[in-house]
Specification:
Layout (H helix, E strand, L loop, with lengths): L7 E10 L2 E11 L4 E5 L6 H8 L7 E6 L2 E2 L5 H6 L2 E4 L11 H6 L8 H5 L5 H13 L15 H13 L5 E5 L7 H14 L4 E5 L3 H7 L2 E6 L2 E6 L1 H5 L2 H8 L2
Parallel strand pairs: 3-8, 3-9, 6-7, 7-8
Antiparallel strand pairs: 1-2, 1-4, 4-5, 9-10
Helix pairs in contact: 6-7
The structure holds adenosine-5'-diphosphate.
The site of adenosine-5'-diphosphate has 10 residues, from helix 1.
């Protein structure tokens, strides 16, 4: 019997900016079907970690294995194609297009000039748009222009645009910032659904939300893993209380 390999295995990862180690010899393993939340004080290296995984920032040393591929040597675009989706805090949706159009154009075939030229509204694409729209709770808004959506719905639409590409790892930076209470609840359920068959990595500051979504929490401090485990274990860890929760 072999344990299933983690989808993402980060080992000995470091990056320095002018001699300052923003991420310092970091190890992180994430399984399929897992929602992992990374917390930590400002400047802990959370954003830099996500930048490293998606290829926006180049590692100084270490490795990032994703489904048996080494990401540290790959270009950003190829990392997306390998199945890594990243959502930033501000949604980059097309405000003057409908929900349907935003989703449709995010289907992989629409991404290249060649693909776009010969792109047809195939049954396959339509089916995928409908499935994703249901998943992100926007199936009743398919033909609404995106700028008329609520702040929360816009965030879900951007998650939907990532889902159109069927990523195996989805990374989200503070997904509920600025959302209403009911939108937060719905987002927690959404993340639970989309983690099925995938891995989800979230940066989050709202501890109530972390409790709701996290299967496991990783606490970063000064570019290193300070603690890792269940939310409860992490919350009661004296080191964590000292540097983070107790301030
Ligand atoms: P967090 O997301 O946990 O708040 P960041 O990853 O944004 O932390 O930043 C970690 C540290 O690295 C901070 O001290 C920040 O100033 C520094 N840093 C991040 N990116 C750069 C960069 N491109 N150049 C120089 N310093 C950076």
């Amino acid at each position: 019997f072999q344990m299933p390999k983690p989808v993402l295995a980060v080992e000995g990862l470091s990056v320095s900016f002018d001699g300052f180690k923003a991420v310092d010899d970091l190890n992180l393993y994430i399984d399929r079907n897992e929602v992992r939340v990374v917390i930590g004080p400002n400047g802990a290296g959370k954003t830099t970690l996500l930048d490293l995984i998606c290829g926006k920032t180049r590692a100084t040393s270490g490795s990032i294995q994703f489904e048996n591929r080494e990401l540290t040597k790959m270009r950003e675009y190829d990392i997306v194609r390998a199945g890594v989706g990243r959502k930033f805090q501000n949604p980059s949706i097309y405000e003057n297009l409908t929900v349907f159009e935003n989703l449709e154009m995010s289907y992989p075939a629409g991404r290249t000039v060649f693909g776009a030229l010969f792109f047809k509204r195939s049954a396959e694409v339509l089916e995928r748009v409908e499935q994703v729209a249901r998943e992100i709770m926007l199936h009743e808004h398919l033909h609404q222009q995106a700028d008329l959506l609520s702040h929360g719905q816009k965030q879900w639409l951007e998650i939907g645009m990532l889902l159109m590409q069927d990523p195996q790892l989805l990374m989200l930076d503070e997904p509920v910032a600025g959302m209403s209470v009911s939108e937060r609840m719905a987002t927690a359920e959404l993340l639970g659904r989309i983690s099925q068959g995938r891995s989800v990595l979230v940066i989050e500051h709202d501890m109530e939300f972390v409790k709701r979504i996290a299967h496991k929490v990783t606490v970063l401090h000064q570019g290193r893993v300070l603690a890792e485990g269940s939310m409860e274990a992490v919350q009661n860890n004296p080191k964590v209380i000292e540097v983070y929760l107790g301030h």
